[in-house]
Amino acid sequence: MNNLFVFLILWLGCLNSIAQVSQNKIDVSNKFLILLTSEQFEEAAACFDEIVLKQLPPEKLKQVWSSVNAQVGKFKKHTDTHTEQIPNYDIVYQTCEFENAVLDVKLVYTKEGDKITGFFFVPPKPKENEKIPPYAGQDSYLEKEIEIHSGRFILPGTFTYPKDVTAFPVVVLVHGSGPNDRDETIGPNKPFLDLALGLAAKGIGTIRYDKRTLVYRDSFQLDNFTLEEETIEDAVAAIEFVKKNILVNNVFLLGHSLGAIASPRIAELQKDIAGVIMMAGNARPVEDLILEQMFYIFSIDGLTEDEQNNLQEIEKQVGRVKSRSLSPQTPKDSLPFHTPAIYWLYLRDYDQVKSARKLKIPILLLQGERDYQVTMQDFNIWKKNLSGKKSVKFVSYPKLNHLFMEGEGKSTPAEYTKQNHIPEYVIRDLAEWILKY
Asked: How far apart are CA 182 and CA 163, in angstroms?
């Protein structure tokens, strides 16, 4: 569930470099931001095209804005506008300062249209020199672009490996929920890049790749997919890639958040991997965590009436997931994050704790004690169920959040918008465990 803050917003979905994006689109963006921040939701929604308006009518837009305010505080001011062009789309970013974070309002337009066809809140991109963790020696690793072939899908990725070493273990990194890139980018933070560069400095290679739901987001069948299609199949293909193409001592699997709970199933399908690392893997049902997380987020500064209404709706959605009447025909619009019923039915039948208990390979479980998305309650369930197994190790970190990055006090979604890195002591713990096998 590592991407819940961004995932929630994505699904709810002085000028720089403006020469190639029309002034009219910038004017529409400015108008939309003024209307949104002044809470004129009817007028703001009129800037959407038909597709976005159907997903975000004025009342839904109001809920999104309320959720953003709950997570990052009240809007303070608009500080910058910049643009970007990608194939078929123009993008206008409106940088906004909130009480507890800085976010870009990302507004997407088709080349021909002046109506907003995509609306997101995203943290500003980090500067180039901020992407590399301080413990990554520039001369200690090499990187090679690769492709993971998984059925009809081709996923671009990166093989990072230690320099001047002929044989070494390789770790396949498996992302959390949402359309993650190979670095598992969340705002300015890139936890998988940190892991790749940090482990390379310790003599360990890694494979990381862009998720199917990112690369094929326009063609991926969102009405009919499960954890197998979202995560498991491609992780299995990545492990096969390592076995066929790289001279290695051992292959390990590292899953974060949703990737962690998928790891036991992946290990069942790839029986000769050397070990499994689970970082912030929930032991409880995903739908229970969603309700718990949303209550936590809304309660940070006290529940408003709108937030109470939102919680009631989420509670109804979770109730439908748990209902015996849930079937593949249950409309996805009535379920959390508009995720199809078949996805929830798969998770209902999959017990990650039971699957992990059956594994006969070493397991390392890591947990941030400040994590509000997957909590110490889950970590303790893992300990209770796996402590009797040989070659299982549990480590928790008092200062770390869901991204395994340090902070102080109560963790909040705004923390994810601030540039940070996984601490070197986590890299050290991982490397020592991997190299032991």
From this structure: 21
Looking from the CA of 301 toward its CB, the CA atoms found within 13 Å total 15
* Overall pTM > 0.85: no
Which candidate in 82, 256, 402, 421 is catalytic? 402
Distance CA 71, CA 327 (A): 33
| Nearest CA-CA partner of 186 in 16, 314, 8, 62 | 8
What is the amino acid identity at position 148? I
Q: Look up 219 and say whether it is catalytic.
A: no
The pLDDT tens digits for 90-105 are 999 999 999 888 899 9
DSSP state of 126: P
**Residue 252: exposed, middle, or buried by beta-carbon count in 10 A (0-12, 13-18, 19+)?**
buried
Q: Is 371 part of the annotated catalytic residue set?
A: yes
Q: How far apart are CA 266 and CA 132, in angstroms?
A: 30
Q: Which of 181, 194, 371, 378 is catalytic?
A: 371
Rg of the Cα atoms in the chain: 22
339-366 pLDDT, tens digit per residue, is 999 999 999 999 999 999 999 999 999 9
**Which positions ≥6 away from 186 have C-beta within 8 Å?**
2, 3, 5, 6, 123, 403, 416
**Structural contact between residues 221 and 178, judged by C-beta atoms closer than 8 angstroms:** no
The burial of 88, by beta-carbon neighbours within 10 Å (0-12 exposed, 13-18 middle, 19 or more buried), is given as: exposed
Active site residue 402: yes
| From 29, 67, 257, 263, active-site residue | 257
Distance between CA 238 and CA 253 in Å, rounded?
10
Quick one: how far is CA 359 from the chain centroid? 26
Cβ count near 122 (within 10 Å): 18
What pLDDT score does 292 carry? 94
Record the tokens describing residue 279, joined without a space: 């970082």
Which residues is 172 bridged to in the sheet?
Answer: 207, 253
Rounded to 5 degrees, φ, ψ at 207 are: -120, 125
Distance separating alpha carbons of residues 69 and 99, to the nearest angstrom:
9
Domains contained in the chain, CATH given: 4-124 (3.10.450.590), 129-280+351-436 (3.40.50.1820)
